Amino acid sequence: MSGIEIALANLTSAPVLAFVLGILATVVRSDLRLPDAVYQTLSIYLLLGIGIKGGVALSNSSPAEVALPLLGALILGAVVPAIAFFALGFMTKLDAINRGALAAHYGSTSLVTFTAGVLFLESLQLYVEGYVNTLLAVLEIPGIIVGLALASRGLKRQVSWSESMREVLTGKSILLLVGGVLMGLTMGATGYSQIEGFFGALFPGVLTLFLLELGIVAGKRIKDIKKGGIGLVVFAITFPLLAGSFGVATGHLAGMSVGGSATLGIIAASASYIAAPAAVRLALPEASPGIYLSASLGITFPFNLTVGIPAMLAISQLMEGVI
Amino acid sequence: MIMKQRKLVTVVIEAGLARRLEGDLRAAGAKGFTSTLAHGAGPRDQRASEVDGGNVRVESVVNNEVLEVILEKLERDYFPFYAISCWVSQVEVVRDERY
Hints:
The complex is a heterodimer.
Chain A: H1 3-11, H2 14-27, H3 36-59, H4 63-91, H5 96-107, H6 111-123, H7 132-140, H8 142-151, H9 161-170, H10 172-193, H11 196-201, H12 203-221, H13 229-253, H14 258-269, H15 275-283, H16 289-319
Helix pairs in contact in A: 1-16, 2-12, 3-7, 3-10, 3-12, 4-5, 4-7, 4-8, 4-13, 5-8, 5-16, 6-14, 6-16, 7-10, 7-14, 9-15, 12-16, 13-14, 13-16, 14-16
Chain B: E1 4-14, H1 18-28, E2 34-38, E3 55-62, H2 64-77, E4 84-93
Antiparallel strand pairs in B: 1-3, 1-4, 2-3
């Protein structure tokens, strides 16, 4: 498949099309929304499903195989937000608090970008190491901690670490991802075979429905993009490519496959819009959601979904054999 | 039946702050509260829980002293930063020891 064919295959996949439909719904001012309870159910399904599958894959992997990718993910978790913080200093006029808030978002991850990426790679018959789901869980937290720590340099008071960390650690993202991994590790492939019909075959359909809702929410944020200025828009598009390239290189250096390295790139390129905003709102009330959510949800998320995912695959294919 | 006068304080706040607010209401002396999901828009219209949560409407019936503490807390720690609306109404209750 050529690069253009791959990009087209991604753009015409069901989840991406549903996302576009969601954005269109906001353009025509439709009142379409998923009911709260349905949204919550779908999000629990996706988080738990990814966790369980990661845990099952982990139970089939040797510690030696997983150790290097895990270490690489931890390094990415510390380095990516730090680079984001300093890059924003050059590219925008934002203060340290807003730059730290953005660094927390870009250091953390987006489950949906990751899931759409893995499904896309699998649709191309590419092998993706099952334990990458665990790397997603690992990368969710460090970015938030580093981002908040950097932002605290601009504060005259102490950051309320305990409340923010409690929010992150007991929020449903980490609870279900980590809990799911532990469940998967415990039940193994035999236990998973009993629930595979529910968490396997239905998964792409549920993701499609979830992306319809995210399209509606992202569509509402697009009008706020100008608030951050052109520098922020450029950052929200170029930084995922940079961070993603680091992720892909890390994957190859850690001995992962082309698909696995592309996936680690997709994780590193993605920006959080659920766990990070919740923690940042509590710890950094001075930071503006109009800036960090518009960037992560209004620009980076659609960009990654349409361009970033196939771009990470292309970069991974380029790096194969070079690293 | 004898009714006693109390104040009903209603706060609509972005979902991510609901747990903190409920704790602060308790700390101010409120003996209980009711929280429900809420939809709407306001002049600030910027909430971090855009994707996950929306708004929560927290209500509590309190006496005048507790109300003062709550309003001071809101004015200092919430109004400057968050998407929040607050109003107070006069209500009549039975079993006034509960409030």
